[in-house]
Write a structure and sequence with these properties.
alpha+beta
Length: about 375
């Protein structure tokens, strides 16, 4: 929680004003907003008068240098050549502090890791008694995690997996990462409606997964006046009471979305399906995106246009397909299955992820 709150503060205090300034100066094209910010670096250089100069870099402007421990001596003729992962000890990789006027500078670094972030900072260079010549502990950089993530994107293709899940009546959401994605990659002949696949998803969305989410929601007051219903729905699911789980969680979507639209200063449409379109416009109206746009798009598209809002007559199997109207208006009977109960919870996981992103940009993580 502290990490997301800190990122939210940094984005609002430094990154967003920088984006706005570049737009005003014509450096950034306003028509291309929102822009994806996959990483940002805030350098706080100390000036001779004691004041601090803030330099904000993002995306390709971020050029990190690292100090690594080699497994073998490097010959003079190799200086300047490429170093391979096999040449270093990955656990002995450290960030070299950026320079400002030739001296070490304080900095904040944030880098996206699909559904999460790597965040680190070093304010020591701005301390009154800082001595650059003295030995200091540099911040360790998880180079292996980023290499693995790059390979994961190239080989597993998680965004494509989310699209495949969505087209097969599985709400796209964060909890599939990484285990369900890996299973899909290694077992491409297994159908997404197969019992074996359902077991994998169930393991991804374990009680421990939801326990961590509930702790986050409670600490941040993420769903004021609703957390008791959300906890009840999750508890009922794991007690095999799928009727209660479904009937408790389904009405929360409407209430949460309507309340969030009000929180953003707008009036939700009386037609709830249109209010979902309102939410979509709000989410995409920001100047930046902290998560990949294609990732947000597949989740927003499912939430806005997926089966949850469709007329009940277009739902072929309510034991497998999420649908608000059939539940809220009592049209469906005999729908209570473990699979569809889990899918409603996964859809809720997708909704909270979208709101998390927006709350970070609004500095609304209390």
């Amino acid at each position: 929680m502290l990490k997301f709150r800190t990122i939210s503060d940094l984005v609002n205090v430094y990154v967003l004003p920088e984006v706005e300034s570049r737009c005003q100066k014509g450096i950034l094209d306003v028509s291309k907003l929102p822009i994806e910010v996959g990483q940002f670096l805030i350098i706080q250089g100390k000036l001779p008068d004691g004041k601090v100069e803030n330099i904000i870099k993002f995306n390709e402007e971020v050029n990190l240098q690292h100090k690594v421990k080699l497994k073998r001596p490097v010959e003079k003729k190799e200086i300047g050549s490429i170093i391979l992962l096999s040449d270093i000890y990955p656990d002995e990789c450290f960030i070299v502090p950026p320079k400002h006027n030739g001296k070490d500078a304080a900095y904040f670094l944030c880098q996206s890791m699909l559904f999460d972030f790597f965040l680190c900072f070093d304010c020591e260079p701005n301390a009154p008694d800082f001595n650059e010549a003295e030995a200091r502990n540099l911040i360790k950089y998880p180079v292996l995690d980023f290499i693995n993530l790059k390979n994961f994107f190239q080989q597993v293709k998680p965004i494509e997996k989310l699209k495949s899940l969505a087209s097969n009546n599985w709400p796209p959401a964060p909890g599939y990462h990484p285990h369900t994605f890996v299973f899909m990659h290694k077992n491409q002949t297994v159908a997404l409606n197969d019992k074996e696949f359902f077991k994998i998803v169930s393991r991804s969305y374990s009680q421990e997964y939801w326990k961590n989410k509930i702790e986050f929601w409670e600490e941040t007051n993420f769903f004021p006046n609703r957390i008791q219903y959300i906890k009840k729905a999750i508890d009922a699911h794991f007690q095999n009471d799928y009727i209660s789980s479904i009937y408790v969680i389904v009405p929360q979507f409407e209430g949460i979305i309507s309340n969030y639209i009000k929180e953003c200063g707008e009036r939700p449409d009386s037609d709830f399906e249109k209010s979902v379109i309102q939410l979509r416009k709000i989410l995409l109206s920001r100047k930046i995106l902290m998560f990949r746009k294609d990732l947000l798009d597949v989740i927003i598209d499912f939430l806005a246009t997926g089966s949850f809002w469709k007329p009940t007559g277009r739902i072929s199997d309510p034991t497998k397909i999420v649908n608000r109207h059939g539940i809220a208006h009592g049209v469906f009977t005999g729908f209570e299955s473990e699979e569809v109960s889990l899918k409603y919870l996964i859809l809720f996981d997708a909704l909270w992820f979208l709101l998390l992103h927006d709350k970070m940009l609004r500095r609304a993580l209390v």
